[in-house]
Amino acid sequence: MSGHSKWATIKHKKGALDAKRGKIFTRLIKEITIAAKTGGGGDPDGNPRLRTAIAAAKAENMPADNIKRAIQRGTGELEGVSYEEITYEGYGPGGVAIIVEVLTDNKNRAVSEVRHAFSKNGGNLGAEGAVSWMFTKKGVITIAKSAVGEDKLTEVVLDAGAEDISDEGENWEVLTDPKDFEAVTEALKAAKITPEHAEVTKIASTYTKLEGAQANAMIRLLEAIEDLDDTQNVYSNFDFDEAAVAAGN
């Protein structure tokens, strides 16, 4: 999991989660909307995808009214944009595997922008199934070590169904099965432990470590993809030396 953790840490340190709070909310709203539309309706009890999307939104402190309106747009109670889900797979510098999930109202625009981001930053798109086989969907919850000790955290999350806890420098990282993500986040809330970040994501079975110019090129590629309006999620098996990259080496 170290590749995912380090990239998440870099984004935290660069202030991306604060600076792009509005974009995070936009992505969560789109996910809630499409989940309500395609996952079985607006009742989270009967719609696992919607339930997970709502849990992720709550973990990011999204107002309840925003969640409600997103559900209503998905069910057709409110007028809204019709989104299409598309997944692209490709490779970055050094052969790093990348998956890009988009929710778009314009398929031609989406593929053009994703392809341009890859080609401009040393990557290339691949065929469907090229890299997805090496990724597994998991719930990942990041908690600052200053917020809770390991023993208490272990007791809270394992009792709620978490699979594992790892030491990621300044943070603890909790891993869950997607179906247990909501239960674990709710258990943390009940214990008054506030995560730094919580999401259902995809993690790779193996990671490709890059150094120097290749690592920095890979970071530029990931940033370019994440900055696209249609991008919903980006996954990679990118690993690197955080200190070296932070220093610009």
Provide structural commentary.
- It is globular, with a radius of gyration of 18 Å.
- The chain has 249 residues and is α+β, with helices and mostly antiparallel strands.
- The longest helix has 18 residues, at 21-38.
- It has 10 helices and 10 strands.
- Helices cover 45% and strands 24% of the residues.
- Helix 3 packs antiparallel against helix 4 (48-59), helix 3 packs parallel to helix 5 and helix 7 crosses helix 8.
- The protein has a 4-stranded antiparallel sheet with strand order 3-1-2-9, sandwiched between helices.
- The protein has a domain at 2-75: Arc Repressor Mutant, subunit A.
- It has helices at 2-13, 16-19, 21-38, 48-59, 64-75, 107-120, 150-160, 181-190, 212-226, 242-246, and strands at 84-91, 97-104, 124-125, 135-144, 164-168, 171-176, 197-204, 208-210, 231-236, 238-240.
- The model is unreliable at 12-18 (pLDDT under 50).
Say what the CATH topology of the domain at 2-75 is. Arc Repressor Mutant, subunit A
Amino-to-carboxy terminus distance = 23 Å
Second-tier CATH architecture of the domain at 2-75: Orthogonal Bundle
User: What is the 3D form?
Assistant: globular
| Strands ordered across the widest β-sheet | 3-1-2-9
CATH first level of the domain at 2-75: Mainly Alpha
Provide mean pLDDT, rounded: 84
Sheet having the most strands? 4 strands, antiparallel
| Helix share, percent | 40-55%
Order of helices and strands: HHHHHEEHEEHEEHEEHEEH
Kindly name the structural category.
alpha+beta
**Radius of gyration from CA coordinates:** 18 Å
CATH level-4 homologous superfamily of the domain at 2-75 = Integrase, N-terminal zinc-binding domain
Give the assembly state of these chains: single chain
Percent of residues in beta strands: 15-25%
Note poorly predicted spans: 12-18
What is the count of DSSP helices, taking H or I runs of 4+ residues?
10
Give the tally of β-strands.
10
